[in-house]
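Shipment paperwork, digital attachment
Item: protein structure file
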Amino acid sequence: MLCAAALLVMTLTHWTPLLGTPQLSWLLFFPPLLFGLIWAHLVIHTCTHGSLPPLINRAVGEVLGVFVIVRFASWDIVHLRHHRYSDDRVRDPHPNFHSYWHTVKNTVVQTELQLFQEYFDTWGDTPESRRYEKRRAWVSYLTNVILLATWARLLGPWFALGVFLPANVLAALFVIHFNWSTHNGERGLKDTDFHPVNLDAGYYWIGNRVFAGIYMHANHHRRPHAFNPAKLPAGTDAEPQSPEVERAA
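Attachment content:
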């Protein structure tokens, strides 16, 4: 609603976009923008586990969602369902396949379906629930349109379509690749091989230092509340805790 209001004000006041005609210098914007959007996803992920102070946790997740074109509530529901049903081909919103691109395609399709299913699991699969979820889905799609239109009006259509949107797509692909690789996507030989693993060599060593230990994913699944799973002390890789237990903690 705030973005819709901002879009209306910019339209009525004939707002001049911050960035107009395409420039080669825009290429300099791309790396820091991509880096910032990846970190926005990572902090939203942190917020789903309640790792920030309670007074700001939801607010931070919602604000960062504006930049990466997602709603925090949807991110929250989908991710906690992933922890609850990790690598379950039916109930995990983004289970792995041997092909990364197959995983990408499945993630796009499954995410919305699992939002529906979580609602049905909670309130029952009834005609009323299905009507409610269809309305929720259309509101969600419309929100994406409003968010993108607001960014295009604020920044300018050329920058929004040529830099901001591609950076968002790459950031999302990075997040999917991170999940794919840390659920044994690169090394799995059979479907049963998909499970959370810790990666800390080569590219992944660099990623852990730049992105707060994200590739130490087995550690994360065991202690979801930890901001940097690479810093977990010895002995914390015992029995995994559920996201709900971690959130309560």
